[in-house]
Write a structure and sequence with these properties.
This protein has 264 residues and is α/β, with parallel strands linked by helices. 48% of the residues lie in helices and 16% in strands.
Length: 264
């Protein structure tokens, strides 16, 4: 893995830090996508991981697409079909990988989340914002469209009307408006952002990992499934859950009036 994405693990919590602060942590024109895919594969293979925190180094969360790379794409030296393939084999792999990651991901948005950077935050399960955070679905300002899944993600988070307003205007909103619109779960002082994210990650990690993973899968599937389809999946997941040691431990601990000890 290159130096773009730092991978740190403390106990069951992995922190991923986008580490190109001098360029405001862009997601194209570098190794960002391949680094994310490698980290996600590593998390998939490590059953000790129970929660993930994603943040950015420096003053920005992520500035989104790299302008110099856009200049290359608009220069006429690259054909449209090649650009299409670059999206399909590049940035578009990221929302699919994060969508299918079983472990919950908390976006700790430390600063500007612009364009694809905002969409990256939307790909996560929970968003906590620093008071300095700001968000913009700014593709239209550059004469392009959300090519990384934002048009699918954003309306499901804040509703079609507000998603349309942000997408059609490209306006920047601050942390408080993001909170009011339900884009983030909470806003905290900048110096408390990572502590708040780690506290939430610890509360998630304290629960039986199979139950957390299956709950995330149900929530994700519910974004595009019919109720009867989701109920059938829930019945299967519940049948598996009832047979786990952690479920038996939870029931026994409740009856014995003691804290449970989950082993995963």
């Amino acid at each position: 893995m290159s130096n773009f994405l730092l991978y740190e693990q403390q106990g069951p919590v992995v922190t991923l830090t986008m580490n190109e602060p001098q360029r405001r942590n862009p997601l194209t024109g570098n190794t960002a996508v391949s680094d994310f895919l490698e980290a996600i594969d590593r998390i998939h293979d490590d059953r000790s991981v129970r929660a993930v925190i994603l943040t950015g180094a420096g003053t920005a969360f992520s500035s989104g697409g790299d302008i110099k790379d856009m200049e290359r794409q608009s220069s006429g030296s690259v054909g449209g079909m090649q650009i299409r393939q670059e999206y399909r084999t590049g940035i578009q792999r990221l929302p699919l990988a994060l969508f299918n990651l079983e472990v919950p991901v908390i976006a700790a948005v430390n600063g500007a989340a612009i364009g694809a950077g905002m969409d990256l935050a939307c790909m996560c399960d929970v968003r906590i914002a620093s008071e300095h955070a700001k968000f913009a679905e700014s593709f239209v300002k550059l004469g392009i469209i959300p090519g990384d899944g934002g048009a699918w993600l954003l309306p499901r988070l804040i509703g079609l009307s507000r998603a349309s307003e942000l997408s059609f205007t490209g306006d920047v909103i601050g942390a408080q408006q993001a909170l009011d619109w339900g884009l983030v779960s909470r806003v905290v002082p900048a110096d408390q952002l990572l502590a708040s994210a780690n506290e939430l990650a610890a509360r998630i990690a304290a629960n039986p990992p199979h139950a957390v993973r299956l709950t995330k899968r149900l929530l994700r599937e519910a974004m595009h499934s019919r109720l009867d389809t989701l109920l059938e999946m829930a019945a299967s997941f519940q049948a598996l859950s009832h047979q786990t040691d952690d479920h038996r431990e939870a029931v026994t601990a409740f009856l014995e009036k003691r804290p449970p000890v989950f082993k995963g």
